[in-house]
# Entry
Amino acid sequence: MTGVRGAASIQYVKRVCEMKSQHPGNCPQYRRMQKNQPSFLHRWTTDNNRLVSQYLTEDHDAALLLCEFQRLVKEIQGLPPQVPSLCVELPVVFNLCYLQYTSTPQGGADQLDLSTTICGALQRALRASQSGQAVLTVERLLTSDPDVTVLLKHVLQLAQGSKGTAIVEPVCLLATLLALCYLGRERDKAVAILQIVKERGTQTSSESGERTAAAGEGCALRPHLIPSSVLGTDDLLRPVGPPVHYLLSCCLYLDGNIAGCLQELDRQTAEQAFLPASYLKGYVLYVEKRYEESILALQACLNSPSSDLCTKARVLNLMGCCCAQQGKPHTAIQLFREALRCDFSHHSALYNISLQYLALGLGDVELETLNLLVTALENDETRKDSCKNQVLDPVLQLDSTAPGTATLLTSPHTCIPLHQALYVLAKRCLELER
# Structure
C-alpha cells in the first residue's frame, strides 16, 4: 500500500513539475503543491523517523531498509529543489548513503555510486541556493562528474545566506561521509573536503536546530542514522556536528604524521566528547609506546555512557596490551578476561591471554587457552561487524596487518584465523613435548 502511494506521489510531482516548466508562475497545481508542501515534508519526516527506528533495532533487515530509503529519496527528489524541502531531503539522503556505505564493501563501483548520490544531492542544494544567480556561473558544477571540492565550496557559500543556513549541517554531514569513502584510496581529496567542512561548517553549527522542524508542523526529524556513540554524543536531542577533526586525524595518522594526528584528536575532544577519537588516541599512543597515556585515553572510552559491550571489549583488550608491554602480565590477563566477559567473540583477547601464560612459563594453562581458542573459532558463526564498528575505526581497517604467531592483537579488525591458531597450538605442543 505504501509503495502504491509513493508511486502515485512521484507521478503527481512529475506532472506538476512539467506544468511549471511549461507555464512558469501560472500553474494552479504547482501553487497548490507549494501550499501543501508542509504535509509532504511532514510525511517524509515521519517515514524517515520510522525507518531510523527500525534500523536501531538489532534484528533490522538492512536490505529492506535500503530499498525503503531509496524509494523515499526518489519520491522526495521528484520535487524541484527548494530550501524548505532540502532540510528534509539532505538528511534522508545522508541516511541512505550511510546505509549503503555500511552495507556494501567500500571501493570500486560502490564508492562511485555513493559519490554520485552525494554529488547529486549537493547539486540540488546548489540549484536551490543560487538565489537568482546566472546558471552559467555554476554550469560546470552541474555536470555528471563535477569537481566535488569546488561544488562543496559553492554550496556552503550560498547556503550560509539567511535562507539556506538550515541546510549547512546536513551538507557538512554528507561531505564528511564522502570524505570517509575517499579515506583509503584518495586521501588528498578526503583532506581537502574535510578542510572545507572544518572552515565553513562550524560557523553555523549554532543555527542547526532550524532543520529539526518539518515546515512548522513540529515533527522532529531524525536525520542521523549513525548511532549516538559514533556521532559523539550521549544526548540524542543535542545537535552534533560531523567528526571532522577525527577523520583528519585518521588521514594524518595514515600519512605518518603522529604529532598532527594527536593534535587533531585533542581538538575533537575539546570541541565535543567523541568516543572514537578517544579510542583512536589510545591506539596511536600504544603504537608510539606511550602506554600510560594510552591507558588514560582508553579509560575515557570506558567511562562513556554510549560505550556498548562490543566497544568495551576492544578497549579492555587494548588496555591489556598496554599492561603486557609494561611487563604486567597478571594485570594484562585480568583485563583480557574482562574483555571476554563483555564480548566472548572478541577472540583477540583470548589469544593475548595465551601469550601472557607463555611469558609466565605456564605451559599447561597456555595450551588449555589455545585449545579453547581453537574450539571457539571452530564453533563461531560468521558474524558481520555492526555498522557502528565500521565507522568507529576506519583508520584501523586500513592499518590492520596480519598477526604474527607471538604478537599481541590490538586492532579490533585483526583476529587470528583458525588455521593459524591450530598451527600455534601444534607448535607449542611440540615444543612442550605434549
Residues 320 and 335 are 5 Å apart (CA to CA). The longest helix spans residues 108-129. The chain has a mean pLDDT of 74.
